[in-house]
Amino acid sequence: MPLRRANPRRVKLHRIYSATELADCLGVHKNTVRHWQANGLELVSKGRPTLFDGATVRAFLAKRNASRKRPCPSGTLYCFKCRQPRAPAMGMVEATRQSATTGNLKAICEVCGTMMHRRTRLAAIPTIMPNLDVQIREAGPRICERTEPSQNCDNRKD
Question: What is the pTM of this model?
């Protein structure tokens, strides 16, 4: 299965790659490299074979991956359905403590009604969610900590 995003750190800085070598290095199809070339990936020279400089490829991929980032401003969580940072509905957020210092924030999207999640440090909650009603609760027990086994077990001993 191919990678979803090409990792720029797999490309060596001081090496020259052909399109096929670059595709093999990054785990993508060679036509993907051709599309990158059409979208601004620079060649070493205009002649054949088409060669790419490792440093140029790494910078191109890093810039391309950075352009996809959508940082959440304070007071928002990322909604996967809307694909944008959104404010929680009714200004209510629930924080579930996972460890002594970290937890998960959950809220409902004000636009589409989907559950939104965000992992955070508990000490950072006042800066991440200012002027919002944040309720902190303890996490439920894990499966291995329960006294009764799970009811969804196919390995029943009859």
Answer: 0.56
